[in-house]
């Protein structure tokens, strides 16, 4: 296993397609990931928030990662999301990723017991790293307090990075709070600081950040790639905000899946894992119409590329 580089650029938090039996459709997932990589995405993150990670079992997540590797997706292009509510499950997922040649892991904090103190969060991650016991591990801390209700404050990030240099490799900040992101950039400049909130990407890059792990890249990778360019424009930023203004009128994962279904003319993409529900026919039609009216091309991919 070669030393993994710090994650930079455009990474996609991949959607998880399901088969008629409700299980992960490995072939469709691999095809989706290969398409993203061919479109210039730098890497992918299976089973993050956009991929409904907490809704899948340890076995399902391990099998899907194995299937991606079997489909010749390079471990260098994968960041395995291994966070779970139970410590033992997070440990099992992280060990499996590492043993599979994927040492880079995006790890949620435990998200059931709350509130958690900074000390509790530090001990959680420290105990996990110690239990894995492998210096090859590269941990990307996942700060998404609006869902986890367990904020990873800059003080915790700095303490972990100080105690586990090299192993703590970065932070995905999906809080939508750029003040928090700016503190990470200032206090942990050795880490790869990425945002999940796409409208903050231009500010992040200008401040010396590393890039993004985001959901929009599933649908319009070129929209996000434009924000990484030195000559990005206000129009590029406005397009991303317009897209989110339309999509976030609905639960975002079912909405993203509805858009992907329209792009592929494949209704299998419509279905999320319970407890999420698919959009109704009326909701889906209204969403697609609004996007088209705003100038977003929902033409099936076979007709575009």
TrEMBL record:
Gene3D superfamilies (UniProt xref): Aldolase class I (3.20.20.70)
Highest rank taxon of the organism: Bacteria
UniProt entry keywords in alphabetical sequence: Lyase, Schiff base
Classification via SMART domains: DHDPS
Family: Belongs to the DapA family.
Entry protein name: 4-hydroxy-tetrahydrodipicolinate synthase
Species annotation: Methylocaldum szegediense
């Amino acid at each position: 296993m070669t030393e993994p580089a710090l994650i930079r650029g455009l990474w996609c938090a991949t959607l998880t397609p399901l088969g008629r039996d409700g299980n992960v459709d490995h072939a469709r997932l691999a095809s989706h990931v290969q398409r993203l990589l061919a479109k210039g995405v730098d890497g992918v993150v299976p089973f993050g928030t956009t991929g409904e990670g907490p809704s899948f079992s340890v076995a399902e997540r391990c099998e899907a990662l194995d299937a991606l590797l079997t489909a010749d997706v390079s471990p260098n292009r994968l960041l395995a999301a291994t966070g779970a509510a139970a410590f033992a499950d997070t440990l099992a997922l992280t060990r499996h990723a590492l043993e599979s040649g994927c040492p880079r892991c995006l790890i949620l904090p435990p998200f059931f017991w709350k509130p958690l103190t900074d000390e509790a969060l530090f001990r959680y991650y420290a105990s996990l790293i110690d239990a894995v016991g492998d210096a090859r591990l590269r941990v990307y801390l996942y700060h998404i307090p609006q869902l986890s209700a367990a904020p990873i404050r800059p003080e915790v990030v700095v303490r972990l990075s100080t105690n586990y240099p090299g192993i703590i490799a970065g932070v995905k900040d999906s809080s939508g709070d750029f003040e928090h992101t700016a503190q990470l950039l200032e206090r942990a400049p050795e880490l790869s600081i990425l945002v999940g909130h796409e409208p903050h990407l231009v500010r992040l890059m200008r401040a010396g950040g590393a890039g993004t792990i985001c959901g929009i890249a599933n649908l319009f990778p070129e929209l996000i790639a434009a924000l990484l360019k030195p000559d990005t424009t206000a129009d590029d930023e406005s397009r991303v905000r317009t897209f989110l203004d339309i999509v976030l009128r609905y639960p975002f994962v079912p909405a993203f899946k509805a858009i992907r279904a329209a792009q592929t003319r494949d209704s299998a993409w419509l279905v999320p894992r319970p407890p999420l529900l698919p959009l109704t026919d009326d909701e889906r039609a209204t969403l697609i119409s609004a996007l088209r009216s705003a100038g977003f091309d929902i033409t099936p991919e076979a007709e575009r590329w």
